[in-house]
Amino acid sequence: MYNLLKGKKGIIFGALDSKSIAWKVAERAHEEGAKFVLTNAPVAMRLGTITELAEKTGSEIIPADATSMLDLENLVDKAVEILGGKIDFVLHSIGMSVNVRRGNLYTHQDYNFTKTGWDVSALSFHRVMSVLYQRKAMNEWGSIVALTYMAAQRVFPDYNDMADNKAYLESIARSFGYFFGRDHKVRVNTISQSPTPTTAGSGVKGFDGFISYADKMSPLGNATALECADYTISMFSDLTKKVTLQNLFHDGGFSNMGVSNAIMDQVMEKEQPVEAVEKSKKKTSK
Ligand SMILES: NC(=O)c1ccc[n+]([C@@H]2O[C@H](COP(=O)([O-])OP(=O)(O)OC[C@H]3O[C@@H](n4cnc5c(N)ncnc54)[C@H](O)[C@@H]3O)[C@@H](O)[C@H]2O)c1
């Protein structure tokens, strides 16, 4: 490895199990020489296997519900204490929609669920940055990254209210990124990742079709969780110091595609029998 994060200190949100993108980021950050604390919602401590990751990477876990200011303030204070100084990098890798979980269609949302999903998936990013900013807990030239998905820009019907949450999240990155850059020389970006088979990802209806379609559309194929971790590490490193306020697509080229030959072939294959039937109809009518 390259010692890209040697001497750097961080906070990593959202490692639930070994499939989580945050899990891979933690493993890669460890390999690159960083020290960090791991955090997740208290309920996730029971459901997931985060202690295994903590042991593997020599990290401490500080539970925090990302919708609670008290929890986040406690997290940041303890992280600075445990790590012995200010923070250089933060990963926000949190997403959850109650409407998706309950199978409510986008057109038939329960707005209390919508509010909870928005609070967890989008507003939490503002809360995290607000605590870091107000406590002056970030080192100069630090880097904050949140993970997002392209449904913020394009329509993916089954992504549901998460599409709106991601659009809000990306806007927060730009708006808070201005203040963090101006006042503390800290960069803030979102990474827009390919569909990835994780607990959150697999919750989306028709996820297998979704992932296969994206793979066939992308000239480089879908980006894996580990590849996302590699990209995130580069955004935490000193090699990307002047990249800020960006939504960075990490998707094998998907976001700039119209259609690929692989998808066209598949569509034409399905169309074929219809065409053949039409032709034979014409022949018999003649
Ligand atoms: N998997 C995909 O296809 C994909 C694609 C693009 C972007 N993303 C984004 O990547 C991020 C990570 O998701 P993942 O795919 O690794 O799935 P994951 O299920 O492993 O991670 C989601 C995490 O959010 C945490 N979380 C939920 N509620 C919380 C709360 N109140 N406080 C603190 N943490 C809370 C969960 O415990 C979990 O660790 C999410 O923002 C997701 O939207 C995922």
Secondary structure blueprint with pairings:
Blueprint: E1 9-13, H1 21-31, E2 35-39, H2 42-47, H3 50-57, E3 60-61, H4 69-83, E4 87-92, H5 98-102, H6 111-134, E5 138-148, H7 162-184, E6 187-193, H8 199-202, H9 207-217, H10 225-236, E7 247-250, H11 261-285
Parallel strand pairs: 1-2, 1-4, 2-3, 4-5, 5-6, 6-7
What does this structure look like?
- The structure is a single chain.
- This protein is of the alpha/beta class.
- The protein has a single domain (9-260), classed as 3-Layer(aba) Sandwich (Rossmann fold).
- 50% of the residues lie in helices and 14% in strands.
- The protein contains 11 helices and 7 strands.
- It has helices at residues 21-31, 42-47, 50-57, 69-83, 98-102, 111-134, 162-184, 199-202, 207-217, 225-236, 261-285, and strands at residues 9-13, 35-39, 60-61, 87-92, 138-148, 187-193, 247-250.
- Strands 3-2-1-4-5-6-7 form a 7-stranded parallel sheet, sandwiched between helices.
- The longest helix has 25 residues, at 261-285.
- The model has no long low-confidence stretch (mean pLDDT 94).
- Nicotinamide-adenine-dinucleotide is lined by residues 13-14, 16, 20-22, 40-41, 44, 65-67, 93-96, 120, 147-149, 193, 195-196, 198-201.
- Residues 13-14, 16, 20-22, 40-41, 44, 65-67, 93-96, 120, 147-149, 193, 195-196, 198-201 line the site of nicotinamide-adenine-dinucleotide.
